[in-house]
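Worked example

This section walks through a single chain of length 274. The input is the sequence exactly as stored; nothing has been trimmed or padded.
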Amino acid sequence: MSNTSAPERPQPGKGGKPTLAEFRAVAHPEGLLDRRSGEHWAGRIYMRRISSRVTRHLVDAPVSPNQLTWLMMLTGILAGAALLIPGLAGAVVAALLIQVYLGLDCVDGELARWRKQTSTTGVYLDRVGHYLSEAALLTGAGLRAADLFKVNGGTAWMWAFLGTLAALGAILIKAETDLVDVARIRRGLSAVDDSASVPRASGVARARKLASALKFHRLIGGVEASLVLLAAGIADAVHGDLLFTRIAVAVLAAIAVLQTVLHLLSIVLSSRLR
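Given that input, the structure is written out below as tokens.
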């Protein structure tokens, strides 16, 4: 959750640390939780409530916001690696690490706003962290489905390929969005406004609205994918094999490919590139 500018910082409460209300007034500026595409649903529902209680105790800690962003990145990558742990334990550890990743994604920006240390480097690292973490999780899911450490051999590498395909799709979808601003800025234009994201073609606009209502594309996001894989891991533990993890990987790969194409079309046919 990227760093943004903050209002004037108030004086801290007793004990040298700000009260929760004082901290949130700066760390959660007006409109933060209502951003159309910048705030994850888990952040709005529960993580911002947790993260702010943690971050206010870090205001004087010898750690920088960018260091926390690096830690966020590492945690997300480790979540993908955790899926290589056999059995239900791997899915559980991965889901827990993704929650820590999400928490750090909130904490780094909150600390930066409180200290007035928001930076272009912080925004850049935040984006790279999301690219790497989601790709690692989906790649790990594919390797898990391939039963990489199967004792008697016969690894089903098709599942590893599908996981990698899902990871590639997740990266491309983010890149398609970010490259809009790259293209505009290289032409000397300003960054795009939300209002320009509506497709000009009515048919594409209706398809985009339907996809937004169904929200199926969110399943390839880190939090959602980790929960899907956790549910599949539980089902596998009952069933006694990797059937449900393999179904999950195939579905995630299909969603990633479809969403990559649809997202690209929605951008090209919108006013964002005009």
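What to look for: Residues 157-186 form the longest helix (30 residues).
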